[in-house]
Amino acid sequence: MSKLLENKVAIVTGAARGIGEAIALKFAEHGAHVAFTYVSDGSAEKAAAVEEKLRALGVNARAFKSNAGDIAQCETFVNDVMKEFGSVDICVNNAGISKDNLLLRMTPDQWEDVINVNLNSVFYMTKQVIKPMMKARAGSIINMSSVIGMSGNAGQSSYAASKAGIIGFTKSVAKELGSRNIRCNAIAPGFVETDMTSYLKDGEGADKYRASIPLGRFAHAEEIANATLFLASDMGSYITGQTISVCGGMHI
Length: 252
Prior knowledge:
The chain has one domain: Rossmann fold (3-Layer(aba) Sandwich). It is 46% helix and 15% strand. The protein has a seven-stranded parallel β-sheet with strand order 3-2-1-4-5-6-7, sandwiched between helices. By secondary structure, it is α/β, with parallel strands linked by helices.
């Protein structure tokens, strides 16, 4: 199998599990060295296991405890990656949370937590990685949005706002940095089988959501990783400023 990311260096935020882990593994399978973040002590064991899986694929890999929603930690993280890996060719801004609530009941803290982790983190990380990318005159930035950011959803105003903001940010960065051969795109997953959506797997609620998806099922995390690989590699070399919806037709 030809390796699409041979000797590239990729950053993936929030990769101790779920979509982030699938992306990190997919990149490593295609020859990329991977630096990834996790945020809590409770995720340290999972992060170490992911690091071991990545290294078993024959690449350099390291897990960093770093909060993507903290600008100082993002700066330190990228500096550490540059020291250890020598470059940053790809950045996947994947870290995200949801704290769903009806607007009437949503607290300012709930709103701010979601905006900070989901949206501010994309600004913080992108601001750091574009420095080495501009120097190299090459790079691919991929931001994880959501179909909820495209359509909205009751009880998810904070999540929808954060994910819609990512789309606008992505388009602006693509226009700013295209002349430096830096591409910036977004991926908008639909429902994906991860820990975050485990409560939707069974029962009437799950049937209702599946009925809204033309392909009739939730995505596997690897299917999101496949789209990310495409955008990260030279296969997506003429694509920038776009949002690719990987949702089984849910958002048409």
